[in-house]
Amino acid sequence: MTSLTPPAPASALHPRAGRRCHNVLNSLHSTHYFSPDAGRELAELGITSPRAVNFAVRTAAMGPVGAGAVTAAFYNYKHELVARHVPAIWRTASPEDVLAARLRAVDTTLRRLLGEEAVASPEMAEAAELALRATEACSRSARPLYSAHADLPVPEQPHLALWHAATLLREHRGDGHLTALQYAELDGLEALVSHTATGKGMTPKWNFTTRGWNQEDWDAAVQRLHARGLHDGVTELTEAGVELRRDVEEATDRLDRAPYEHLGAAAVERLTELGTVFAGAALKAGAFPADLLGKE
Protein backbone atom coordinates (compact mmCIF):
# COMPACT_ATOMS: atom_id res chain seq x y z
CA MET A 1 0.00 0.00 0.00
CA THR A 2 1.32 3.45 -0.91
CA SER A 3 1.85 5.77 2.06
CA LEU A 4 -0.10 9.02 2.08
CA THR A 5 2.85 10.72 3.75
CA PRO A 6 5.78 11.52 1.44
CA PRO A 7 9.25 10.75 2.75
CA ALA A 8 10.85 13.67 4.61
CA PRO A 9 13.77 15.34 2.84
CA ALA A 10 17.19 15.03 4.46
CA SER A 11 17.10 18.71 5.44
CA ALA A 12 13.66 18.45 7.09
CA LEU A 13 13.02 20.39 10.26
CA HIS A 14 13.23 18.73 13.63
CA PRO A 15 9.60 17.88 14.55
CA ARG A 16 9.63 20.43 17.39
CA ALA A 17 11.66 23.16 15.70
CA GLY A 18 8.57 25.18 14.84
CA ARG A 19 7.21 24.82 18.38
CA ARG A 20 10.47 26.04 19.90
CA CYS A 21 10.59 29.02 17.55
CA HIS A 22 6.95 29.85 18.24
CA ASN A 23 7.48 29.69 22.00
CA VAL A 24 10.15 32.38 22.07
CA LEU A 25 8.32 34.62 19.59
CA ASN A 26 5.09 34.19 21.52
CA SER A 27 6.87 35.46 24.62
CA LEU A 28 7.68 38.67 22.78
CA HIS A 29 4.13 39.01 21.50
CA SER A 30 2.65 38.43 24.96
CA THR A 31 4.63 41.14 26.76
CA HIS A 32 1.98 43.76 26.02
CA TYR A 33 -0.75 41.79 27.77
CA PHE A 34 1.02 42.36 31.08
CA SER A 35 2.35 45.82 30.33
CA PRO A 36 1.12 48.94 32.11
CA ASP A 37 1.62 50.73 28.80
CA ALA A 38 -1.36 48.95 27.24
CA GLY A 39 -3.60 49.89 30.14
CA ARG A 40 -2.44 53.49 29.99
CA GLU A 41 -2.98 53.79 26.24
CA LEU A 42 -6.46 52.27 26.35
CA ALA A 43 -7.44 54.32 29.37
CA GLU A 44 -6.93 57.36 27.15
CA LEU A 45 -9.68 55.88 24.96
CA GLY A 46 -11.97 55.27 27.93
CA ILE A 47 -11.32 51.52 28.35
CA THR A 48 -10.11 51.06 31.91
CA SER A 49 -10.99 47.54 33.06
CA PRO A 50 -7.96 45.22 32.70
CA ARG A 51 -10.20 42.50 31.30
CA ALA A 52 -11.76 44.90 28.81
CA VAL A 53 -8.27 45.98 27.76
CA ASN A 54 -7.36 42.36 27.05
CA PHE A 55 -10.45 41.76 24.94
CA ALA A 56 -10.03 45.03 23.08
CA VAL A 57 -6.39 44.63 22.06
CA ARG A 58 -6.70 41.04 20.92
CA THR A 59 -10.12 41.37 19.27
CA ALA A 60 -9.76 44.71 17.51
CA ALA A 61 -8.29 43.16 14.36
CA MET A 62 -11.60 41.32 13.84
CA GLY A 63 -13.58 44.56 13.95
CA PRO A 64 -16.52 45.37 16.27
CA VAL A 65 -17.58 41.76 16.75
CA GLY A 66 -19.96 40.50 19.41
CA ALA A 67 -19.39 38.31 22.44
CA GLY A 68 -20.23 35.07 20.64
CA ALA A 69 -17.51 35.53 18.05
CA VAL A 70 -14.94 36.38 20.72
CA THR A 71 -15.83 33.39 22.90
CA ALA A 72 -15.54 31.09 19.88
CA ALA A 73 -12.21 32.53 18.76
CA PHE A 74 -10.67 32.67 22.25
CA TYR A 75 -12.01 29.19 23.18
CA ASN A 76 -11.04 29.06 26.87
CA TYR A 77 -12.67 32.21 28.26
CA LYS A 78 -15.95 32.00 30.16
CA HIS A 79 -18.66 33.43 27.92
CA GLU A 80 -20.25 35.42 30.73
CA LEU A 81 -16.99 37.31 31.22
CA VAL A 82 -16.69 38.03 27.52
CA ALA A 83 -20.29 39.25 27.32
CA ARG A 84 -19.69 41.61 30.23
CA HIS A 85 -17.26 43.60 28.09
CA VAL A 86 -18.05 42.79 24.46
CA PRO A 87 -19.51 44.48 22.45
CA ALA A 88 -19.65 47.33 25.01
CA ILE A 89 -15.98 48.14 24.39
CA TRP A 90 -16.83 49.18 20.82
CA ARG A 91 -19.25 51.81 22.11
CA THR A 92 -16.30 53.32 23.96
CA ALA A 93 -13.58 53.10 21.32
CA SER A 94 -13.38 52.00 17.71
CA PRO A 95 -11.28 48.97 16.71
CA GLU A 96 -9.10 51.29 14.62
CA ASP A 97 -8.31 53.48 17.62
CA VAL A 98 -7.61 50.42 19.76
CA LEU A 99 -5.22 49.01 17.17
CA ALA A 100 -3.31 52.30 17.05
CA ALA A 101 -3.17 52.45 20.85
CA ARG A 102 -1.98 48.85 21.04
CA LEU A 103 0.88 49.52 18.64
CA ARG A 104 1.95 52.57 20.66
CA ALA A 105 1.88 50.43 23.80
CA VAL A 106 3.94 47.69 22.14
CA ASP A 107 6.50 50.26 21.01
CA THR A 108 6.85 51.68 24.53
CA THR A 109 6.91 48.23 26.12
CA LEU A 110 9.58 46.75 23.87
CA ARG A 111 11.79 49.82 24.17
CA ARG A 112 11.52 49.65 27.95
CA LEU A 113 12.10 45.90 28.24
CA LEU A 114 14.76 45.44 25.57
CA GLY A 115 16.49 48.82 25.53
CA GLU A 116 17.09 51.23 22.69
CA GLU A 117 20.29 49.48 21.59
CA ALA A 118 18.52 46.18 21.01
CA VAL A 119 15.57 47.85 19.31
CA ALA A 120 17.89 49.55 16.82
CA SER A 121 20.23 46.57 16.36
CA PRO A 122 20.94 44.70 13.10
CA GLU A 123 19.82 41.55 14.91
CA MET A 124 16.37 43.04 15.44
CA ALA A 125 16.07 43.82 11.73
CA GLU A 126 17.30 40.33 10.87
CA ALA A 127 14.78 38.70 13.20
CA ALA A 128 11.96 40.78 11.74
CA GLU A 129 12.90 39.79 8.20
CA LEU A 130 13.06 36.09 9.08
CA ALA A 131 9.77 36.12 11.00
CA LEU A 132 7.95 37.95 8.23
CA ARG A 133 9.30 35.47 5.70
CA ALA A 134 7.86 32.63 7.78
CA THR A 135 4.43 34.24 7.76
CA GLU A 136 4.33 34.03 3.97
CA ALA A 137 3.29 30.37 4.31
CA CYS A 138 0.57 30.85 6.90
CA SER A 139 -2.94 29.73 5.93
CA ARG A 140 -6.15 31.67 6.52
CA SER A 141 -8.48 28.66 6.41
CA ALA A 142 -10.32 28.08 9.71
CA ARG A 143 -8.00 30.57 11.43
CA PRO A 144 -10.08 33.62 12.35
CA LEU A 145 -7.64 35.38 14.67
CA TYR A 146 -4.68 34.84 12.37
CA SER A 147 -6.64 35.88 9.30
CA ALA A 148 -7.90 39.07 10.92
CA HIS A 149 -4.39 40.08 11.97
CA ALA A 150 -3.02 39.20 8.54
CA ASP A 151 -5.16 42.02 7.12
CA LEU A 152 -3.24 44.60 9.18
CA PRO A 153 -0.32 46.50 7.65
CA VAL A 154 3.23 45.56 8.59
CA PRO A 155 4.79 48.31 10.75
CA GLU A 156 7.89 49.95 9.32
CA GLN A 157 10.11 49.89 12.40
CA PRO A 158 11.89 46.52 12.75
CA HIS A 159 10.97 45.88 16.39
CA LEU A 160 7.31 46.49 15.61
CA ALA A 161 7.56 44.42 12.42
CA LEU A 162 9.00 41.56 14.49
CA TRP A 163 6.18 41.92 17.01
CA HIS A 164 3.62 41.94 14.18
CA ALA A 165 5.12 38.80 12.63
CA ALA A 166 5.26 37.13 16.05
CA THR A 167 1.58 37.96 16.47
CA LEU A 168 0.71 36.36 13.13
CA LEU A 169 2.70 33.23 13.95
CA ARG A 170 1.19 33.05 17.44
CA GLU A 171 -2.40 33.36 16.22
CA HIS A 172 -1.76 30.94 13.34
CA ARG A 173 -0.54 28.28 15.76
CA GLY A 174 -3.23 29.17 18.27
CA ASP A 175 -6.08 28.76 15.80
CA GLY A 176 -4.70 25.36 14.77
CA HIS A 177 -4.30 24.41 18.43
CA LEU A 178 -8.04 24.85 18.93
CA THR A 179 -8.68 22.31 16.19
CA ALA A 180 -6.40 19.87 18.01
CA LEU A 181 -8.16 20.52 21.33
CA GLN A 182 -11.56 19.88 19.80
CA TYR A 183 -10.37 16.65 18.23
CA ALA A 184 -9.12 15.61 21.69
CA GLU A 185 -12.60 16.48 23.05
CA LEU A 186 -11.25 19.01 25.53
CA ASP A 187 -13.53 21.98 26.11
CA GLY A 188 -12.06 25.38 26.90
CA LEU A 189 -11.79 24.93 30.65
CA GLU A 190 -10.63 21.32 30.39
CA ALA A 191 -7.88 22.56 28.08
CA LEU A 192 -6.78 25.04 30.73
CA VAL A 193 -6.94 22.52 33.58
CA SER A 194 -4.96 19.90 31.68
CA HIS A 195 -2.38 22.48 30.53
CA THR A 196 -1.93 23.76 34.08
CA ALA A 197 -1.44 20.17 35.26
CA THR A 198 1.57 19.89 32.94
CA GLY A 199 3.24 22.72 34.88
CA LYS A 200 3.58 24.77 31.68
CA GLY A 201 0.25 26.57 31.79
CA MET A 202 -1.01 29.46 33.88
CA THR A 203 -1.73 28.84 37.54
CA PRO A 204 -5.39 28.53 38.59
CA LYS A 205 -5.13 32.02 40.10
CA TRP A 206 -4.25 33.57 36.75
CA ASN A 207 -6.82 31.47 34.90
CA PHE A 208 -9.47 32.77 37.29
CA THR A 209 -8.23 36.35 36.95
CA THR A 210 -7.96 36.45 33.17
CA ARG A 211 -10.42 33.83 31.90
CA GLY A 212 -13.36 34.41 34.23
CA TRP A 213 -13.63 30.93 35.74
CA ASN A 214 -13.97 30.23 39.46
CA GLN A 215 -12.93 27.42 41.77
CA GLU A 216 -16.26 25.61 41.38
CA ASP A 217 -15.91 25.66 37.59
CA TRP A 218 -12.31 24.45 37.87
CA ASP A 219 -13.16 21.59 40.24
CA ALA A 220 -15.97 20.44 37.94
CA ALA A 221 -13.59 20.35 34.98
CA VAL A 222 -11.06 18.38 37.04
CA GLN A 223 -13.76 15.81 37.81
CA ARG A 224 -14.76 15.54 34.15
CA LEU A 225 -11.14 14.81 33.25
CA HIS A 226 -10.89 12.39 36.17
CA ALA A 227 -13.95 10.50 34.89
CA ARG A 228 -12.18 10.08 31.54
CA GLY A 229 -9.06 8.73 33.25
CA LEU A 230 -7.01 11.76 32.29
CA HIS A 231 -6.53 13.42 35.70
CA ASP A 232 -5.92 12.13 39.21
CA GLY A 233 -8.65 14.39 40.56
CA VAL A 234 -6.21 16.61 42.47
CA THR A 235 -3.46 18.38 40.49
CA GLU A 236 -1.76 15.77 38.28
CA LEU A 237 -2.46 14.23 34.91
CA THR A 238 -2.57 10.46 34.65
CA GLU A 239 -0.38 8.66 32.14
CA ALA A 240 -3.29 8.80 29.69
CA GLY A 241 -3.66 12.53 30.32
CA VAL A 242 0.03 13.15 29.68
CA GLU A 243 -0.24 11.19 26.45
CA LEU A 244 -3.31 13.13 25.36
CA ARG A 245 -1.60 16.49 25.96
CA ARG A 246 1.41 15.24 24.03
CA ASP A 247 -0.85 14.22 21.15
CA VAL A 248 -2.49 17.66 21.19
CA GLU A 249 0.85 19.44 20.95
CA GLU A 250 2.09 17.14 18.19
CA ALA A 251 -1.13 17.68 16.22
CA THR A 252 -0.68 21.42 16.68
CA ASP A 253 2.89 21.10 15.39
CA ARG A 254 1.62 19.38 12.24
CA LEU A 255 -1.05 22.00 11.62
CA ASP A 256 1.52 24.77 12.14
CA ARG A 257 4.49 23.36 10.22
CA ALA A 258 4.06 25.29 6.95
CA PRO A 259 5.60 28.63 8.07
CA TYR A 260 8.70 26.95 9.43
CA GLU A 261 9.14 24.56 6.53
CA HIS A 262 8.88 27.60 4.26
CA LEU A 263 11.57 29.39 6.25
CA GLY A 264 13.89 26.38 6.28
CA ALA A 265 15.82 24.63 9.02
CA ALA A 266 18.82 26.96 9.19
CA ALA A 267 16.71 30.12 9.20
CA VAL A 268 14.34 28.69 11.82
CA GLU A 269 17.32 27.93 14.03
CA ARG A 270 18.63 31.46 13.56
CA LEU A 271 15.25 33.05 14.27
CA THR A 272 14.91 30.91 17.40
CA GLU A 273 18.37 32.02 18.52
CA LEU A 274 17.58 35.70 18.00
CA GLY A 275 14.14 35.39 19.55
CA THR A 276 15.57 33.64 22.59
CA VAL A 277 17.91 36.57 23.22
CA PHE A 278 15.12 39.14 22.98
CA ALA A 279 12.60 37.08 24.95
CA GLY A 280 15.21 36.38 27.62
CA ALA A 281 15.92 40.09 27.97
CA ALA A 282 12.20 40.82 28.32
CA LEU A 283 11.82 38.12 30.96
CA LYS A 284 14.83 39.40 32.90
CA ALA A 285 13.36 42.91 32.77
CA GLY A 286 10.19 41.70 34.50
CA ALA A 287 7.82 41.37 31.56
CA PHE A 288 5.70 38.70 33.27
CA PRO A 289 4.41 38.11 36.80
CA ALA A 290 6.61 35.73 38.80
CA ASP A 291 3.62 33.52 39.71
CA LEU A 292 2.16 33.30 36.19
CA LEU A 293 3.05 29.67 35.38
CA GLY A 294 2.86 26.46 37.38
CA LYS A 295 0.35 24.22 39.11
CA GLU A 296 -0.32 26.37 42.17
Task: Walk me through what this model shows.
- There is one protein chain.
- The protein is an all-alpha fold.
- The protein has one domain.
- The chain has helices at residues 17-30, 36-43, 50-59, 67-74, 79-85, 89-92, 95-114, 116-119, 122-135, 144-150, 158-183, 188-197, 204-211, 215-227, 239-255, 258-263, 265-284.
- The longest helix is centred in the middle third of the chain and has 26 residues, at 158-183.
Produce the secondary structure layout:
Layout: H1 17-30, H2 36-43, H3 50-59, H4 67-74, H5 79-85, H6 89-92, H7 95-114, H8 116-119, H9 122-135, H10 144-150, H11 158-183, H12 188-197, H13 204-211, H14 215-227, H15 239-255, H16 258-263, H17 265-284
Keyphrases for this structure?
single chain, 296 residues, mainly alpha, 17 helices, disordered N terminus
Count of individual helical segments: 17
Shape: globular
Approximately how much beta-strand content do the residues carry? Answer: under 5%
Low-confidence segments, given as residue ranges, are 1-10
Beta strands, count: 0
Mean pLDDT: 95
Ends: how far apart?
Answer: 50 Å
Q: Work out the radius of gyration.
A: 19 Å
Report the major sheet. Answer: none
| Total domain units | 1
Structural class: mainly alpha
* H/E element order: HHHHHHHHHHHHHHHHH
Helix content: 55-70%
